[in-house]
Amino acid sequence: MATRTPLIAGNWKLHKDCAESVAFASELKAAIPADIDVDVMVAPTFTALHPVCEVVKGSPIAVGAQDMFWEAKGAWTGEISAEMIKSCGCTHVIIGHSERRQFFGETDDTVNAKLKAALAAGLVPVVCIGETDEERQAGKTFEVLETQVKNGFQGMAASELTTVVLAYEPVWAIGTGNTATPEMVQEVHAFLRKLVADSLQKELANGMRILYGGSVKSGNIAELMALEDVDGALVGGASLETESFSGIVRYKR
Ligand code: PEP
Questions:
Q1: Which of 66, 134, 153, 179 could form a disulfide with 215 if both were Cys (CB 3.0 to 4.6 A apart)?
Q2: Can you tell me which residues form the catalytic site (predicted)?
Q3: pLDDT average, residue stretch 121-131
């Protein structure tokens, strides 16, 4: 059985300007023990990536972008490439967040293009998938997730996907306070691991970290992390304050 180091990731979304991000990152650096035995990642807004990377240097905190573009360079006004993100000092990138899918036209095809570019640049991609409330009510959860995974990973071999992190984020649980029940989470995570095993490779599936996201807080993280197929969390709202995020990171202590 592969050992999967848990990953606790904080998505700051459209919060905190440069100065606020830097101040918050140094608070987190002080609050998170240097010998923490989980991987920790924060995703500030693009403009704060470089300064935050500078602040957390030498700490267990890694930095990721919240999105990226798949082209390396050219006439793409407003876009940011994987190499540019890397040059800020980042090691991770979130791809396909439901807010990107819902409000900015992200599709499984764009997720696939971004995933390929992120991997080519050596970034660790955190690929987000999840069903809407309507899809769950219609009994389509597994069908939707299967399509998102298969299309998102389209044209890639298991050997290319070894660093990929999957984040299951039911859309109805994001920012709503409605965490999925542990039973729902384990059922979906086990389904996703089996899907990766059957469609790609068992070894890849055993080693792949599958995060849960959707109203995670310090009060429910331990219960979620106790589930067999949960390997970490992608945290939105509760990642914006030192006490709550460091509490989530220190869930074992
Ligand atoms: C998210 O946006 O990825 C998320 C999980 O948000 P929240 O924790 O606020 O539900």
A1: 179
A2: 97, 169
A3: 98
3 contacts: CB under 8 Å, gap ≥ 6: none
Q: Which two three-digit tokens encode residue 213?
A: 């996201």
11 is in an annotated binding site: yes
* pLDDT in the model for residue 142: 98
Degrees (nearest 5) of the Cα angle 176, 184, 194? Answer: 125
Active-site option among 99, 106, 131, 169 = 169
Domain hosting residue 218, numbered range: 7-249
DSSP state of 156: -
What are the pLDDT digits (tens) for 44-65? 999 999 999 999 999 999 999 9
Cα end-to-end distance, the chain, whole Å: 25
Is 246 annotated to bind ligand? no
Between the CA of 74 and the centroid of ligand 1 the distance, in Å, is 32
Classify residue 225: in a domain, yes or no: yes
Residues in the chain: 253
d(CA 253, CA 247): 9
Classify residue 2: in a domain, yes or no: no
Q: Which residues, in sequence order, are bridge partners of residue 39? A: 7
Q: What residues have CB less than 8 Å from 206, skipping those under 6 apart?
A: 1, 2, 193, 197
User: Residue 151 belongs to a domain with what CATH number?
Assistant: 3.20.20.70
